[in-house]
Amino acid sequence: MKSKILVLLSLIVFAFLAEAQEVSNGVMYLKELRKPTYRKIINIPEVDGYQVLKCDFHTHTVFSDGYVWPTIRAQEAWEEGLDAIALTEHIEYHPYKNYVEVNHNRSHELIEDVSKRNNVILIKGTEITRKTPPGHFNAIFIGDASSYIEDNASE
After folding, report:
1. Domain assignment present for 137
2. Cβ atoms of 120 and 108 closer than 8 Å
3. Looking at the domain assignment, is residue 116 inside a domain?
4. Which domain holds residue 26?
């Protein structure tokens, strides 16, 4: 009798733990760790009929020197009430290259669907650093970010 009760309790506990997890594309999501998401409303008046967009044109992820995955940046943009975001990963600087493959377009590719779903405009960009003036700047509305790699073999 005790063994039947123990087996029954074990099955109930296992069923409860299995329900708390969701696996999608090989990634496990723990529902109890999810926080409710709220979109902050930023009220800026329109001027002379122009629509005002709230944007961040300088952001980084683990694909350069940021600390979060690109989808987290997309979610942050939505929560902060932004209308547009540009991921401007460094072309020359990759401190996590031992952990994340260097691909200058990948962060943008990873959030295209999330941005569309959240109705946040995604702008392709990159951050470029050169030794001569102007030195350090962001380029936005670009095509292939890899085309901005400079051949430094002659230096």
Report:
1. yes
2. no
3. yes
4. 1-34
Give the strand pairing for 136-140 and 121-129.
antiparallel
Q: Going by C-beta distance under 8 Å and a sequence separation of 6 or more, which residues neighbour residue 49?
A: none
Task: Yes or no: say if 104 and 91 are a contact pair by the CB < 8 Å rule.
Answer: yes
Q: Which region, left, alpha or beta, applies to residue 81 given φ > 0 means left and ψ of -120 to 50 means alpha? A: left
Question: How many degrees, rounded to 5, is the angle at CA 109 between CA 106 and CA 110?
Answer: 90
Q: For residue 88, how many other CB atoms are within 10 A of its CB? A: 27
> Residue 24 is encoded by which pair of tokens?
């999608």
Question: Is the previous residue joined to 134 through a cis bond, with omega within 30 degrees of 0?
Answer: yes
The pLDDT tens digits of the residues spanning 34-85 come to 666 788 988 888 889 898 999 999 999 999 988 999 999 999 999 999 999 9
The whole-number pLDDT of residue 155 equals 43
The Cα 144–Cα 61 span in angstroms is: 18
